[in-house]
Amino acid sequence: EVQLQASGGGLVQAGGSLRLSCAASGFTFDDYAIGWFRQAPGKEREGVSCSSPDGSTYYADSVKGRFTISNDNAKNTVYLQMNNLKPEETAVYYCATRCLLYSGGFRYGKFRDGSEYWGKGTLVTVSS
After folding, report:
1. What pairs with residue 65 in β-bridges?
2. Can you say whether the dihedral through the CA atoms of 107, 36, 39, 127 is positive or negative?
3. pLDDT tens digits along 97-112
4. CA angle (117 as vertex; 95, 1 as ends), nearest 5
């Protein structure tokens, strides 16, 4: 059974940093791409970053140069290091598998059987 558990959210001042963690079980990062998504109040969910099985990483334009996704395969955990956070990035952050790549970006994609796997979100609040 695929399970994802995100943690690491909290309150941080603008310009500060946080590192989110997502512990995965039931699959490995060699199998599926895993990504971070976020949903701010009143807004649609958006992709933040994606890590594919071949080691490639992808970022939303708004976070490039400030956020870094990384995998610890031994721990089956994916991290999102977020630096220079902005108040508008206050949101619930979710890890999920899988993310699908397309020309110029990525999105969430259900598995062929219709399954989708999301971790319980972790709230990031960036104060101004």
Report:
1. none
2. negative
3. 999 988 888 999 999 9
4. 120
